[in-house]
Amino acid sequence: MRKNQNVIGDLNNLGKIEVIEKSTPFKGYFQVDTYRFRHSLFEGGLSQEITREIFERGHAAAVLLFDAKTDEVILIEQFRPGAYAAGMAPWLIEVVAGIIEPDENAEDLAQREAMEESGCKIGRLEKIGTFLMTPGGSSETIALFCGEILSQEIKDTYGLDHEGEDIRTHRIKASESYKLMNTGKVTNAITAIALQWLELNNERIRTKWLSD
């Protein structure tokens, strides 16, 4: 078990973090690290010692597939065991997403997952942002893009068999996707962010992509 003792860092000059101990009690496909730390308080001084487990599952990228010519989006639907465990409907409407491999960047991941999960070849990518998903207990970030649909290989289902993926796609008007979000049918947070962004930037991105 690897341990780092008494490391003090300064993040963006906003405050001090004293890591008393970091250990890794579990390492499998994912990893759990345990931190013992103190951090600076807004009123001055340091907090009491805090112990937290952090879920390390890597960093991810996601892409909202958008056809500027037809003003349509392609969303995917698949079973999510975490949603089932939370007591929610487990077949979620989502944007394409995946974990970034060590030898690829977020843009490459977006291209790869678009083909694997939806059969889509995509062109230009517009960066929406990078977001922490559950910063209270995980280090995971998601780099989110809007991707230009160039073509789609039509199939009944998509995904990789060896990863247990069973995915279908839905091509709908962008305006209909906003209604899905506004009526609570989209419960995946990164998908909601992507659709809200498109609703605000639809005219700008269509003008940009159609004029080039």
State the gist of this model:
This protein is an alpha+beta fold and 212 residues long. It contains four helices and eleven strands, in the order E-E-E-E-E-E-H-E-E-H-E-E-E-H-H.
Estimate the strand proportion.
35-45%
The tally of beta strands, per DSSP, is 11
- Helix coverage percent: 10-25%
CATH class of the largest domain: Alpha Beta
User: How would you name the CATH homologous superfamily of the largest domain?
Assistant: Nucleoside Triphosphate Pyrophosphohydrolase
Give the uncertain stretches in residue-range form: none
Radius of gyration: 20 Å
The main sheet comes to: 7 strands, mixed
Name the quaternary structure. Answer: single chain
Instruction: State mean pLDDT (0 to 100 scale).
Output: 92
CATH topology of the largest domain: Nucleoside Triphosphate Pyrophosphohydrolase
Overall CATH architecture of the largest domain: Alpha-Beta Complex
Instruction: Provide the domain count.
Output: 2
* Separation, N- and C-terminal Cα atoms: 54 Å
Structural class: alpha+beta
Overall shape: it is globular
* SSE run: EEEEEEHEEHEEEHH
Number of helices, where a helix is a run of at least 4 consecutive DSSP H or I residues: 4
